[in-house]
Amino acid sequence: MTYKNINGLKAFIAGREFGLAKELFGLTDGKHRTEHHQPCILSDCDSDNDAFRFNSTEGTFHCRRCGFGGDIIDLAREVLGLSFTEAFDRIADIAGYTDTDTATNQERPSQERKPVSPPAPFLPTFRLDADSPVFKAVQKHRPDILFDDYQRAGAKLFRDGIAIPMFDNAGIESGWVRYFIDGGKPKLLGKSGIVGVDAIYNLRIAKQARIVFKTAGVSDYLVLSGTIERLGLEADYYAFTNGAGEGELPGKFEALMRPALTGKSVGVIQDNDEAGESGALRWAESIAEYAADVCIVKLPPVVFDCEVKDLRDFFATDGATFTDLLF
Length: 327
Description:
DNA Primase, Chain A, alpha+beta, Dna Topoisomerase Vi A Subunit, Chain: A, domain 2
């Protein structure tokens, strides 16, 4: 398969995005030198005369009315109804870009394996109870994650928070992600792994799914997997994540991911920050070696005046739906 070198395309068309957008979508020159204003070109947006703004310096757009924004690929996907791959190819063809990264034909440098730390000591836990004061305190800190989402992942209560188990490539419990009730961020105990009950088995049966999503972290995973189940879409879509998020090297999980994701369409969901962009690219490049189609799913930076930093923010807005993630 051919991995779409999105960074290469962006570098190739840098400074020409507005000209390409004019050719593709009929955008008009605005009265401002760098920011071009006009009514929104999205069919379902009833905007005023200057709500849609395309910044020719940055190569990005945003509509103040409907909140949609992104780059020229995002615009092609939305306006022309294309998948990520189709939008990439359409823009590359018009721009004359031909440099794609054929992942299967490249020798990737082997990564030096670090010594594996021993599993964390046994963490005493007890049955998850939605009425527990501990759970209520944790949910106050993570109100977007429902009780059923924690329960689905096999979470247990411990003295001052909630623990979610992780599994290594042999399917053995290897550590815990812990949510404290003191307002701190989730803290990882033990070595990292794939998150969820029977995670190894579940990821392998993901062969049944049409699209498999890799989220940027545990909180996003809980929200997305819960959304998929509540919509009754488990037969077509599957979500998974690793314990330490996008900063972790994907090579350590290849033995698990390769048999599960070979020939699949995979969407790597990117957080809206620099670390999220580089991490999503790293995971997409690795998975592209055996998946049929890999797309980096970029979240809109703003939805209805609400800033979107990650998938939890995205689903917390009234205007976001699961179908917005499809490619």
